Amino acid sequence: MKDASYPAPGGAGLRGVHHSGTGPGLWALCGYALVALVGWSRVALRDHTPGQVIAGTILGSAVAAAVFALLR
To answer: So where are the chain's domains?
Structure first.
């Protein structure tokens, strides 16, 4: 079994950090759409299962939030 999807956490983490600094808006929505598109592509290419992509997204968001909180 493969590990959690790595592109998803990176994108979700960056999106979460950026969103927390700018608030919701058009760019935030574009960022979330990009994270979803990358996750979908990983499943469509059969590189990861949906569960791995979801786990990677949650993991990336949690790590980014923790790092952002420590650096703030």
So the answer is: 7-71
Cβ within 8 Å of residue 10, ≥6 positions away: 60
Contact 57, 7 (CB under 8 A): no
Burial bucket for residue 47 (CB in 10 Å: 0-12, 13-18, 19+): middle
pLDDT in tens, the chain (72 residues): 456 555 555 555 555 555 555 566 888 788 889 989 999 999 999 999 999 999 998 998 899 889 989 998
**What is d(CA 26, CA 59) in angstroms, rounded to the nearest whole number?**
24
Give the span between the Cα atoms of 70 and 8, in whole angstroms.
Answer: 22
* Tokens encoding 58: 């949650």
Rounded Cα gap, residues 37 and 12, in angstroms: 11
